[in-house]
Amino acid sequence: MKAMNFESISVELLYILIKVADLKSINKSSEALSLTQPAISKKIVQLENYYGTQLFTRSPRGMELTASGKKFYTNAKKILNDFHDLRISVLDKRISLQEISIGVLDSISAFLYPEFFIDTLSQLREITITNKIYELITPFNNDILDVVLMDSAFRTDLNGDFFEKKLFEEPYFVVYSKENTQVENLTDSSISAYALQKLNVLMYPNYCPIHQRIMNIYQEINIEPPKITEIDYSESIISLVINSPFVSILPKSLALNKVTHNINKLAMKPLDITFLRSVSLFAKTPEILNVVESKLTNYV
């Protein structure tokens, strides 16, 4: 067995492999990591030579992990998670996940950070996953929840002192049946607020943050919103969209999931730039914010 050389493997090498695997491109990884492409290629070869196996293959789709590479990738992510946990424990001995209660919208936990919540579900003191925005805001305002992940726009409903970290933005999409000629005949690359007015829209009831956000946007731009028919069940909405002229409005992450699972029947088209979803992490203290944010960065 080869003697361990601790200078051969570093956290940096693991991080580079994970970034190349996620982006499937040395060129994109070069920009993201601020390293030259030759430097990244050299470090990947260094890993492959050390373990005596090929970790990547090149294909028309970019850099693809081999079977050995996929196993290495999974274990490398676990090692980095442990490394971040160690760093947090050193920097802040007062706070651990076992002391934190988190609330999150279902669309965020299921489609944006599923691995984070799978890995931490049993570690957290308490977790609330819901599609009802008031089930996050009220407990947070009453100091029952320490952290919430939700649409940034709902910061105006929070009371008292809190700290915010914006995590990302994503566009909203109209999801519709491929047989819906009303949408198919729209020639623009995106759907404007005025074009949306003329469509038959299905959404969750107004407790849904997506529903609320769409209505708020129409108020902000001072035009009449489309007529919205409310249905309380996700699968019923998708079934009706597939089999009728109705459309639904979903953030990109959720829209991709629904369309991918019904690829022969559904299509999606973005709403224009007016309709952007911003998601933030809100916490009661900066220390709690830093602990949770540090964990989330491992799952981006």
Describe the structure.
The structure is a single chain. The chain is an alpha/beta fold and 300 residues long. The protein has helices at 11-23, 26-33, 37-51, 67-91, 106-111, 114-120, 134-141, 181-184, 193-197, 209-220, 234-242, 252-260, 286-296, and strands spanning 56-59, 62-65, 101-105, 126-130, 147-151, 163-177, 201-203, 228-230, 247-251, 266-270, 276-283. The strands form two sheets. Strands 3, 4, 5, 6, 7, 8, 9, 10 and 11 form a nine-stranded mixed sheet that branches. Strands 1-2 form a two-stranded antiparallel ribbon.
Topology summary:
Blueprint: H1 11-23, H2 26-33, H3 37-51, E1 56-59, E2 62-65, H4 67-91, E3 101-105, H5 106-111, H6 114-120, E4 126-130, H7 134-141, E5 147-151, E6 163-177, H8 181-184, H9 193-197, E7 201-203, H10 209-220, E8 228-230, H11 234-242, E9 247-251, H12 252-260, E10 266-270, E11 276-283, H13 286-296
Parallel strand pairs: 3-4, 3-5, 7-8, 7-9
Antiparallel strand pairs: 1-2, 5-11, 6-9, 6-10, 6-11
Helix pairs in contact: 1-2, 1-4
